[in-house]
Specification:
Elements: H1 2-18, E1 31-35, E2 43-48, E3 52-54, E4 57-60, E5 65-74, E6 77-85, E7 91-95, E8 109-113, E9 144-151, E10 154-159, E11 162-168, E12 176-182, E13 193-202
Antiparallel strand pairs: 1-13, 2-5, 3-4, 4-13, 5-12, 6-9, 6-13, 7-8, 7-12, 9-10, 10-11
Amino acid sequence: MKNGLSIVAALLVAAATAFGCAAPGQSGGWITLLDGDKGIENWNLYGDANWRTEGGAIMADKGKGGFLVSKNDYTNFELYIEFSPDHTANSGIYMRCQDRKQLSDRSCYEANIFDQRPDPSYGTGGIVHRGSVSVPQKSGGKWNVYEIYVKGPVLTVKLNGVVTTSIVDSELTAPGPLALQFGNRGKEPGGAIRFRKVQIKPL
């Protein structure tokens, strides 16, 4: 058991230090999926949300909830995402989704964007159901940067330069799409979410 824990700890430390060292565009291998108000053609729209270009970003703020889903699947990768949510927004970055038409925080890994989540353990900066944050994070009303590392069973989330959670989890290993969420928490309109940069580097 002690050896197993040592291996897990080593994986997490390696993940936390192995990514985010160079900004996208300064090294090879980065693919831009969204750049300001350009790139929506790289995504499919699912659900009920009014995704549109506005103010140099892609945003949604009305509807029962929906997703932008990448047309390609990914397994191991680094992600760089710039986002700005309203204080009341319920959003997230979904990864390795096992069914692109039935997206959930169980069938995908979700790096959460939800400052007002009733249980803040899995709020903004956490991986829902799997990786909690020790200190609640607030992202509303400003531009933020998510850097996310996914390789094999290791997932590490960095928010605005600080690692907020890192886990070893083998539940979802198959390749799957990315998805950007707009949720309204059962109310309409919901809190707006804006994305102005999404870049991925397959590993």
